[in-house]
Amino acid sequence: MADQIPLYPVRNAAAAAAAAANRKRAAYYSAAGPGPGAERPSRYQLEDESAHLDEMPLMMSEEGFENDESDYHTLPRARVTQRKRGLEWFVCGGWKFLCTSCCDWLINICQRKRELKARTVWLGYPEKCEEKHPRNSIKNQKYNVFTFIPGVLYEQFKFFLNLYFLVVSCSQFVPALKIGYLYTYWAPLGFVLAVTITREAVDEFRRFQRDKEVNSQLYSKLTVRGSCFIRTDQLDGETDWKLKVAVSCTQRLPALGDLFSISAYVYAQKPQLDIHSFEGTFTREDSDPPIHESLSIENTLWAGTVVASGTVIGVVIYTGKETRSVMNTSNPKSKAGLLDLELNQLTKALFLALVALSVVMVTLQGFVGPWYRNLLRFLLLFSYIIPISLRVNLDMGKAAYGWMIMRDESIPGTVVRTSTIPEELGRLVYLLTDKTGTLTQNEMVFKRLHLGTVSYGPDTMDEIQNHVVDSYSQTHSQLGGNTTSSTPPRKAQSSAPKVRKSVSSRVHEAVKAVALCHNVTPVYESRAGVATDAEFAEVDQDFSDENRTYQASSPDEVALVQWTESVGLTLVNRDLTSMQLRTPSGQVLTYCLLQTFPFTSEIKRMGVIVRDESTAEITFYMKGADTAMSTIVQYNDWLEEECGNMAREGLRTLVVAKKALTEEQYQDFESRYNQARLSLHDRALKVAAVVESLEREMELLCLTGVEDQLQAGVRPTLEMLRNAGIKIWMLTGDKLETATCIAKSSHLVSRTQDTHVFRPVTSRGEAHLELNAFRRKHDCALVISGDSLEVCLKYYEHEFMELACQCPAVVCCRCSPTQKARIVSLLRQHTGRRTCAIGDGGNDVSMIQAADCGIGIEGKEGRQASLAADFSITQFRHVGRLLVVHGRSSYKRSAALGQFVMHRGLIISTMQAVFSSVFYFASVPLYQGFLMVGYATVYTMFPVFSLVLDEDVRPDTAMLYPELYKDLTKGRSLSFKTFLVWVLISVYQGGILMYGALVLFESEFVHVVAISFTALILTELLMVALTVRTWHWLMVVAQFLSLGCYVASLAFLNEYFDVAFITTVTFVWKVSAITVVSCLPLYTLKFLRRKLSPPSYSKLTS
Fold first, then answer.
1. Which strand ranges, in their side-by-side order, compose the sheet holding 809-813?
2. Is the pTM of this model over 0.85?
3. Residues 6+ apart with CB under 8 A from 701
4. Cα–Cα distance measured from residue 692 to residue 659, given in angstroms and rounded to the nearest whole number
5. What average pLDDT score do residues 734-754 get?
6. Quick one: what percent of the chain has pLDDT higher than 90?
7. Environment class of 1085 (CB within 10 Å of its CB; exposed 0-12, middle 13-18, buried 19+)
8. Which one of 8, 97, 936, 969 has the largest count of C-beta atoms within 10 Å of its C-beta?
9. Quick check: is 1058 catalytic?
10. DSSP state of 920
11. Which of 233, 236, 340, 434 is catalytic?
12. CA angle 391-397-402, nearest 5°?
């Protein structure tokens, strides 16, 4: 069948090559089966006959199929990298690649990483350890004493702007190139560097303090019962406590000091990234026979976790850089905003204009004398075309935006952790969000219990409670229990039909299974706030319900146990070997915990083997996802349908089953299980094989449904973002049905919108057919699983991303953290648009750090995401205001501020060019000394910087009309078009100011300086007023403050101004005339443009 799928039209001229390709393709597809794809031949055959795939080939050439399968994943990249070769490749970025590669090679040579190996650690005998391990300390500092200054200077001067001014400033030490006073060049540069070094020093000191605090924490003592609880929220983002157990043979030692008198060692696997697995063995050699005990994740406490209950003493296996927390910590990259990159490009354009202008001046001179020296002097004279104050103003503006965001009462608790990219909030096109804890509350509520023939919902939970009460009342009476404490049976029960008894028995079995099959532990807090083991050691202890809390590794588990408590079966105690349940009648049932099989993302199920102390019956309980349990339970005709129904309701489903075991069956299983756990090679596979021997023909008990409720304001926020032109992708580890339901209930996908569920694919042929089926759909949301996504990205990365980016919404389910980060990176790579990732758990950190802008939510999964993010919020609904209000204002203000600062440098450089042209192209500065310093600081700084308070629309208008956000993503506020407009304005005003002063000056050169410089200051103040769209009282203060500073300084600048002349009427009218001519036409053009072609926001505000 596969050789009949023409993936691309075959040309007659290449018949032989096509035939060979077809043979190879047929061999590939035939070799791929049998497999998942082989189970559905009819489906693909029907599609092959009706789809005419040869008329809609995917976007790749036939030659791709002539390669081996191992080369398929390189095809899209090969097409990209073959575009540029030779000199073109070197000029277009190849030199950066070569430099980076050389630097990486040198670093690898200087810092070769030690090969990680498995190790043996002896108790109390460190001299027996042959290998040396890293220091047991954590270091997150970027620099040390020797590298701080060089490192900070490198980070600053790798930007073109700062490097340019360093060269210009250094040139002033050459007498032939000296233009003015040294401080006019070194003072601004020194100020920028001082601020930067101070900021970095403060951040570095804070890192040092955090490292010192972490490195001073120690664990000390072993608990009596051999178990403790730990919190891992800073490692994996989960806030639920996890139970850890000690090595059993060490619990029988008389005293703690005996640990150092025994001959024992721990063999551990080599350090690795996975925080959810560990393999090792504990061996005691001085016993007869030697004791070998397997070690797993249940016996480990990773560095970075917190002992929440109990105390611990342990053997240190991994230290320093080899700990899981350090190995899983990637150094966050320094994020540069799109606006900064655009300004950097404009700065380079200004530099080219500077060089061109200098060459023109030297050419008009006729290349007389030492023309190269004159060229360098002109380069220095016009150096103000590139203003060094640009970086200072923008950095101060970013700090102001961050302060405004954190002060906004409408989004309380918002924290700006990366102050360099607030403008990114106004340029986003893609928003990638987690589901659990981000769109939902991560607060689980039990909603439904299905037994196959009967279903119970929130309105019928009292019936379940009655069944439980009746069942345990009858059981208690039959066992001859204490009738005084039991609930008397209802009269209706004695006459109930057998069917009712059957349902009652099934409900009883289902509730008991849910109450026993979990990893939940009840915790009782004393008045001092410390849990003590002795408080609940006795069976007849008076347990206080209001003083009990449940701890588990998942909120789903807690919700299930809380539900069993609400229907009458309460978990009152649990330790390593037993579990106790309290019935509605008050009787306490004790179950011996023989084995516990924890839940993992691979097997998607968990189980326990328990022995009832009263009847000695051994039962194997198991619960898990329907995909994992459907092949384990006995045949039924309702499970798949009801799982789909619950998923459509947005419920997280779990299938619960049981299997009765005889004593002989369990003993045989236990011996095989213990032997598999001691294996050093392929332990996980061997253990799984033994457990799977029990997972056959289990009795299906029930199906449970738990709801994860949506966060407040999720629906209107997503609708607002969609109206703002932002495409939203949901990346979650949850199952496909639940993810699809949440996407619809949250209005991520509207109910009237079509949804294309990408079928599971495992091979290239299946992926090809599904992609062709998907590309026929228009304006529909895509739902795809992580496995299918991996196959598509392996073979059709470019094609899949192109199709997915056309969708209004995309839902990726069963995604791993690395897949989330890869999707973000691919979006940035293939679209070139700005991306934002938002999440609340430790599994979202990689996605947040990979995005252009990362937002973390402080949720139930801990603070790891919020600490790693650029912006931290408390609720998802705050994203709307953060983007459409603060993102808009930050981008608009920085665009206006950056262009105005460049205008301020361009206008004075234009005046210098006019002055030099009039005076025979002499390379003599027009303004010197304090005039140049004052022009960039006290005379114009406050009004120009007050632009950070400007706003084109009010916040409530921006929230009401999110469509205004679409214009921001087009980058029209800062582009080469707007830049050229400001260049023309600067050339016009600079020419008017200089020529006007030259025409009106009276015999003395000092009058030219006085008239032109005063008119220049007034023009700048008026241009700020022209740029402002909404006045703030601080703007008015800044205008009058700067004007007052200039007027006051006139009395002290006798070196530049003639006080007698500037107090005359002649000076006033000449300055006024020049200023009016330079500004009035611009005011007139702005007024006409507002009337004839008003911007979209002005229509709303009017």
1. 415-416, 871-873, 853-857, 834-839, 428-433, 727-731, 809-813, 781-785, 755-757
2. no
3. 451, 506, 509, 510, 513, 656, 657, 658
4. 13
5. 79
6. 26
7. exposed
8. 936
9. no
10. T
11. 434
12. 130
